[in-house]
Amino acid sequence: MRRIRALFSSITTRLVFSQVLVAAIASIIGSLFIVLLLFIGIQNITVDQYQGTAIMGVTYWLLGTPDGQPMEPSAFSPAEGFFVVATKEGEVLFTHGDTTCRAKMQLKECAPDLAVLPPGEHLYDKDGKRWVESVIDVITGQRAFARIGIPRAPELSLLIPGFQIYGTGKFTLAVAAAMAIIAIPVGLVLSLLTVRPLARRIGNITRTSKQFANGDFTARVHDTTPDKAGELARQFDDMADTLQQNVSVLRDMAQRNADLARQVEQVAIQAERVRLSRDLHDAIAQRLFSLSVSTSTLPDLIARDQAQGVQQAKAIASLAEQTLLDLRALLVELRPTSVLQRGLNEAMETLCDEWQNVHRVSADYSAMLTGKYVPTSVEDVIFRVTQEALSNIAKHANASSVHVSLVEAPRKITLSVTDNGPGFDPDTATKTGKFGLLGMRERAQSVGGTLVIESDTDRGTTVRMILPLDRDFDPLSPPEVNGTQSNSLS
After folding, report:
1. The overall pTM is greater than 0.85
2. Is the confidence at residue 183, as pLDDT, over 80?
């Protein structure tokens, strides 16, 4: 059964079968039409012949044929019926064939239906048979009558001069079967000669399209035949040329994006180094210098004034503790990669906990995540922006509580960092380049997202970032650089 289905699923088999079927049906219909025309023609010829048999009755009478003899079928007499010759007054002069009339009888008594017939020919059906009645006036004053019986098809058995047909119904079936038997092999051969080349060309188009779909952008059909299949092949080749050009352009664009991403990464790394250098200088180096100066003068101060020396020692201890806290904060900022290896949600929790322990400010974290895959580049941007926002709060907000939330929707993920500090003017801060706001916005844009800042002197500040999650994987996208996928700034 599977082999039969596979055989009939082939376009070659279907086309051959359809053409053979059409040829067989056409031959049968044609043979039936020919036989029908032949039958009608023969029937019309027969009627014309029997309409003139009344004249033969007159001929028999003039030749002196005995009255009342039965009719013998021949080429010139019908197989069933009779002749009657009578005067115009209705006296029978001569009969021949199957009739009750005899010479010297009155026609209206022996055949009343003939007595009322006008001259001419009449065709009618009676008792399951077809009859021809012919009435003619003879020049000598007599009237000749003829009633001829014609059997119906399919049991037609007519005797015509030089031609006979017996059993027209069976003959018709035989002709139709013979025509079909002849048409089927002829149609099979002709269809194979016409269908196989077409099927081969269509198969070539199919194979080429599969090669193109599998990445062979040089595959072409190369069919120049001036017909519909050739036109389809040429359209496919034109489409393939256009797609190959587009793929080449996309690859060039992807390479340029990759180069641009590397440049952006280098700029970001350099900016990060500058920021770390500045933070180390402002927060660590200056305090270490102060500690060095204070500790170097501490022995002399204790020798001169012990109480003042003890106070100086306490100040040195406090400064050392603050320096340690600042150093821990910098270490937290230098650990995103190792933290992100544990997952975005855990990394965010760890970041908020460590920031809270370092800066002694309440930092609550909440998340609504589906657990689906989030691109590494998006995770890195979320972590970095959160890190920068918390750093800005520690330096400038003078807040007592912070809330960090992460909400994932079907096609986006939203980060919100809110504090209860006094607030500031976001436009002024962005123009002056303070608080790292420009860097956070650029990070969001690098993955197709947006970042807005809402700040009010009465309600604090909220940094809200929305990143898309509906970007499909593209094999022509820029390659990964240092473990993360590079993205050009939008």
Report:
1. no
2. no
